[in-house]
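Anyone opening a protein record will find just a pair of labelled lines. The record below illustrates this layout.
***
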Amino acid sequence: MLPQTTTGRRQGVLPHREAHRFARIGWLRAGVMGANDGVVSTSSLLLGIAASGAPIASVIFAGAAGLVAGAMSMAAGEYVSVSSQADTEAGDRAREMRELAADPVSEMDELTGLYVARGLDPLLARQVAEQLTAHDALGAHLRDELGQSAQTRARPIQAALASAAAFSIGGAMPLLAAWVAPSAQLKFAVAAFSLACLCGLGATAAIIGGTGIGRSTLRVAFWGVLAMVVTSAVGAIFGAVG
């Protein structure tokens, strides 16, 4: 047996740390969704208005207005959504604190039962429950009973800012293409550049999330192209009618 240090750790044994991507889920979801919406919404709006036969200046102004409106909408929607999750988590924490204060014995039994259900024998499960309760009773219940942790906690402001920033960056790409492209090539430039951005976004999300690049890229590109085609068709129809 290895000798113990004064802190209770064995000498020569270093804590094993693994680089999991679980902690990235929150901001990755908000960032990918925001950037994807920015590219798709803005490019579709530009193509739809351009297909209607509107002047180039009107196309650019509409795209800029759509970018600002979309970014604000993304921020507001994400903040409201994640705030609801945060309120639920706060309510669960408050209820768990009351239960721990009112009946700690039953809460200890509940924690023990959770560990037994996960495969520990009753005696060991009780010992684990007692030690974790002595260290941080509320944290143990939040983590093992409710699935709450610092990594998964809802952060409304962070989610709102990430979504708005990602949407703005994504939306600026097709708008930039429309700004610099010759008038005759505007629709082609916006569509091609937006598709390239969507493919890059899908690949980046796959790399960060640790998944297959091909499927992620194809998924993002398919829905983006579909949105641009449908919006262009609608713009052309209304332009012809007008």
About this structure: The first helix runs from residue 25 to 51.
